[in-house]
Structure to design on (267 residues):
């Protein structure tokens, strides 16, 4: 069995700052990490691999430093990592990104299962996984919160859609996207950390994919959607008042607040 896990290096969203003037994330303001949902995807692949002896490939698109995310994936148990990096890929929206990823998967050739996180914390669109499946012409199951069974020909999962849960079965080749509820990602082992340090990361540019990918459908020029501005709402602080036991103003003040907020109506 062969499994491909889609991963993305994202900013540490607890520390990252937003450039309000330019309306975008200041990616230089914080460190990077593997998208948390992608760690769940990798763990799902590892658990399947433990029983099926599957070969697991971590695949990402990004700048050269995204190699660190692949080394972490190997440290957690992946067999190899492939980095898609090229200036031509810069500015790709979700559609262009899915097109590039699908071209790389076609170049890889044989695969049974593709697993991705349901979304990334720096975008939250949830579109790249399903669109990649669309480019490849294979079925997909989104929002997987539990993997019930898997065999040589299909996988059975529980999918969460609009607060309802569905039992679904899909035949390979298949792409699934997983939620954080599917598992708890394992930590890297010392042995795998040493393996990751020595591992050679495969790097592909557009030249490696040009027989498959369309250069008019990648990067900025191949992206039909544009993010013009990101607005971060200002945080409002809770207001409070302190009354002493002997203070008779508490009840009238509370009643006035309730009336102002239309919780109570005037008698």
């Amino acid at each position: 069995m062969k499994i491909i896990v889609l991963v993305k290096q994202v900013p540490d969203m607890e520390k990252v700052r937003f450039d309000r003037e330019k309306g975008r994330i200041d990616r230089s303001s914080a460190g990077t990490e593997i998208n948390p949902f992608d760690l769940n995807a990798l763990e799902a692949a590892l658990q399947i691999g433990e029983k099926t002896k599957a070969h697991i490939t971590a695949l990402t698109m990004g700048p050269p430093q995204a190699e660190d995310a692949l080394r972490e994936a190997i440290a957690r148990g992946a067999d190899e990592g492939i980095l898609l990096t090229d200036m031509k890929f810069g500015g790709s929206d979700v559609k262009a990104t899915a097109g590039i990823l699908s071209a790389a998967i076609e170049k890889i050739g044989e695969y049974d299962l593709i697993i991705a996180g349901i979304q990334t914390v720096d975008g939250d669109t949830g579109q790249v996984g399903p669109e990649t499946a669309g480019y490849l012409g294979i079925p997909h199951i989104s929002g997987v919160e539990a993997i019930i069974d898997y065999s040589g020909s299909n996988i059975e999962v529980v999918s969460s859609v609009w607060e309802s849960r569905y039992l679904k079965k899909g035949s390979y080749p298949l792409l699934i996207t997983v939620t954080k509820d599917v598992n708890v990602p394992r930590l890297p082992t010392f042995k795998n950390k040493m393996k990751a340090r020595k591992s050679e990361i495969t790097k592909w540019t557009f030249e490696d994919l040009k027989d498959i990918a369309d250069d008019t459908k990648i990067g900025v020029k191949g992206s039909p959607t544009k993010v013009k501005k990101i607005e971060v709402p200002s945080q409002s602080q809770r207001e409070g008042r302190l009354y002493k036991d002997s203070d008779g103003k508490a009840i009238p003040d509370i009643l006035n607040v309730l009336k102002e907020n239309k919780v109570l109506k005037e008698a």
